[in-house]
From TrEMBL:
Subcellular location: Cell membrane
Listed transmembrane segments: 31-49, 61-81, 102-129, 135-161, 168-187, 224-242
GO terms assigned for molecular function: ABC-type transporter activity
Protein name: Transport permease protein
Lineage of producing organism: Bacteria, Bacillati, Actinomycetota, Actinomycetes, Kitasatosporales
Gene Ontology, cellular component aspect: ATP-binding cassette (ABC) transporter complex
Keyword Cytoplasm: no
Domain of life: Bacteria
Amino acid sequence: MTTAAPPFSAARTLATAARVLRQLRHDPRTIALMLIVPCVMIALLRYVFDARPRTFDSVGASLLGVFPMITMFLVTSIATLRERTSGTLERLLAMPLGKADLLGGYALAFGALAIVQSALATALSVWLLDLDISGSLWLLLLVAVLDALLGTALGLFVSAFASSEFQAVQFMPAILMPQLLLCGLFTPRDTMQPVLRAFSNVLPMSYAVDGMTELLTHPTLTTAFLHDITIVTACTLGILALSTTTLRRRTE
């Protein structure tokens, strides 16, 4: 028997987000992973390049977007998988709760944490670790938040294809490592082999790194920067929309 999905409700979406945040509040290890680990990694990177501060300036901004993306991917995929395997998602979908309400609630909850995480990492990098950027601090924070939200969207999507937390972790090298290698962090994308360059052109992390690079070298808003963040935003929304197809009621 097929039942019609209830219409989208902002109240149900906010209630779902509040429930997820209440659950995370009782999991201090997860909160520490999300908020502290990216800051520690960036600080470690700063002192690895202590004798070469210009190197830290060139890669620090890019990693300011990459680290939150990786962390949010891991936390979101594992937390969502727990709800799938425990039957929580099935029970919620049996209620008058639309898929958009449910997915929107998860995205809001993890997105709020992504904003806090990105703000902490950005403040640490610029004010304490002396990361030198030409662009606006607020634009830097914007890109960091968008990258973290992209990691959240990817985590929500891949959680549907894992049957255990171990499998969820295994998706990280499959989903994120190719992007990390081809995003232009280690070598400029225009110097790569044509096949690799073409592949990198369809990976969202490439545009996240390009956006950060624009902020390093341009003090004002550029067309290239707007192009990069538009693609990252579109990829995030597209992956979230695709994630709704992985939510299934057993009665359907």
